[in-house]
Structure prediction request, 177 residues.
Amino acid sequence: MGAGKSALLVIDVQLGPIWGTYKKDETVSVIQKMIAKAESENVPIVYIQFEGPEGDLLERGTQFWQFASGITPREQDIVIHKRAADSFYQTELQEELQNRGVTNLVVVGVRTEFCIDTTCRAAISQGFDVTLVEDGHTTVDGFYPAEQIINHHNSTLRGVKTPEYQIAVVKADEVNF
Prediction:
């Protein structure tokens, strides 16, 4: 990946989406460490917060829409609300990143096979290099066990690229902003 300015993208680490996820506490700990590292290095942090329609479990303002315990955006952080798996879809994410000169995204968060996968793939199409934190995302058991889903996506996304941009998958302790 080329040199450039990085941002940390924290996707859907909310009470609803994180509930019942595989290795929840360990993953949240990794996410908190990535947030602390970004803060200490003055790296922009963007929190993505999914919100559902009226009456939905994740309706804005509901208990499950809130960020998980220990995940608290600061005043200078960016919070973007979305209604789709793709964090770029009908949001101001692209504009916020471009305004800050960001070219590289470090991604952590919740629901590997949905919002993490979709946003990583969309990001390279939008002109960003991506570093997916291998141990910084999680999901729940579905058709396949959560561990298998996570491992599959870590393996698969590692090979996704465009001629100009790519997705790297690295452990949290190997991430350089």
Remarks:
- The longest strand covers residues 129-138.
- The longest helix spans residues 24-40.
